Amino acid sequence: MFRIPGQPDAYYRRLDEITFVPTLHTQGAWREDEQHMAPVGGLLAHCIEVHDPRPDLQLSRISYDILGMIPLQPTVVEVRTLRPGRSIELVEAVATIEGRPRVSARAWRLAEFASEEVAGHEIEPMPAPVDVPVWEVEDLWGGGYIDGVEFRSAPDRRPGRSRTWLRTGVPLVLDEVSTPTAHFLRLADTANGVATRLAPSEWAFPNVDMTIHLHREPVPGWMGLDTHVTIGPRGHGLTSATIHDEHGPVGTIQQMLTVRPARQPS
After folding, report:
1. How many Å apart are CA 36 and CA 182, to the nearest integer?
2. CB of 39 within 8 A of CB of 22?
């Protein structure tokens, strides 16, 4: 796995109680001076999980709104509990950079109950990571974040459809332990780049949000994305993915896209 020389081996290092300094491992794929949303999403999940920790509750849904470009600059994360409760809790985190809110997240944490005897699903399995070839995604995307991720993709990948596995050894915050869920979610926003219908050199299709539902706690390691991308006729699109770990499906991702021609070079 690629390492960026001279950079801490993490996406962020904590500067103080609420401020995190991003490393080049967070560098975005659209612009060199921005953070990729994937590690930002992981950071907000990490901060939510360490806010008034509730080991009896599981983060089951997290919904992000991306409020603008995310500069590659120190990131302030403030967290508050909006709806406390014994079995259901709603927590909000906001990432502010250069004095402006850039990403907000709201997460439901739900109590766990024994439901093994009624558990089941009708979700198609994915081929195991070992059974699909390495995908050199750097031919499509660049940036420090992409450089630090290993990709494998089923051979039937085509525009708008893919079954892709990805993993990274880069932790979220230097010298801090993340929950399995936050550790897993630091890769989730990559869904919008693994089944592209359009060439990113010709079209821009950034997502303005991301909502993740989890029906169980994921196991750290490989994340599998069974992804479909839809582009509508009026500049809007949708990336939808079923999320897997090596034990099977764990949830879903939905991302709303704004689709427009890329800026032409001057």
Report:
1. 16
2. yes
Token digits of residue 84: 């406390």
Between CA 196 and CA 231 the distance in angstroms is 10
Q: Tell me the DSSP string of 72-105.
A: SS-EEEEEEEEE--SSEEEEEEEEEETTEEEEEE
Give pLDDT tens digits for 140-183: 999 999 999 999 999 999 999 999 999 999 999 999 999 999 99
Instruction: Give helix then strand counts, H and E, for the chain.
Output: 3, 14
The 3-state DSSP class for residue 63 equals: strand
Q: Which pair of tokens denotes residue 54?
A: 């509730």
Mean confidence (pLDDT) of the chain:
94
The dihedral built from the CA positions of residue 194, 200, 202 and 207, taken in this order, carries a sign that is: positive
What is the SS3 assignment for 132-188?
A: CCECCHHHCCCCHHHHCCEEEECCCCECCEEEEEEECCCCCECCCCCCHHHHHHCCH
Name the CA radius of gyration of the chain, rounded.
18
The greatest distance separating any two alpha carbons of the chain, rounded to the nearest whole angstrom, comes to: 62
pLDDT in tens, 171-229: 999 999 999 999 999 999 999 999 999 999 999 999 999 999 999 999 999 999 999 99
Asked if 40 and 23 touch (Cβ cutoff 8 Å), the reply is: no
* Integer Cα distance of 151 and 148 in angstroms: 10
Confidence of residue 120 (pLDDT cuts 50, 70, 90): confident
